[in-house]
Amino acid sequence: METNTITEACASSGITTATGHKYLNDTDFKKYYMKLRQETLQLATNKLQKAAVQAVEVLNEIMLDETASASSRVQSAKEILDKAYKSLEQETIVQRIDEMEQFIQEDRSELNDTNP
User: Fold this and answer.
1) DSSP letter string over 57-101?
2) When you count CB atoms within 10 A of the terminal residue's CB, does the N or C end of the chain come out lower?
């Protein structure tokens, strides 16, 4: 995960590319590697979320700063509103998907109960 290519990863690990490809085809290795990737991405996501809170605070400060130019204040307000609406839209979509998945799951359970 620290290199750009399989060849570089193999070289830095001290193994041949043939051995590296064998690892990549191994089911247990793939699961472990995907787990590591997910953990790494989760750490990055956590940092992004923290930075997002700070970014909103900066936009809010600019929006409320009466000494800032009117265009800066309007742009900050627009950004805040735009992101708020997009966030609400995404939450609504996720909620609808969750409801559909639950409906499908219940429907499958009912089918299994009626078909012995």
Assistant:
1) HHHHHHHH-TTS-HHHHHHHHHHHHHHHHHHHHHHHHHHHHHHHH
2) C
Q: How many CA atoms lie within 13 A of 66 on its CB side?
A: 0
Q: Which of 27, 79, 91 is nearest to 52 (CA)?
A: 79
pLDDT in tens, 85-109: 999 999 999 999 999 999 999 988 8
Looking at the predicted structure, is the pLDDT value of residue 3 above 90?
A: no
Which distant-in-sequence residues (6+ apart) come within 8 Å of 49 by Cβ? none
* pLDDT digit string, tens, across residues 68-78: 999 999 999 99
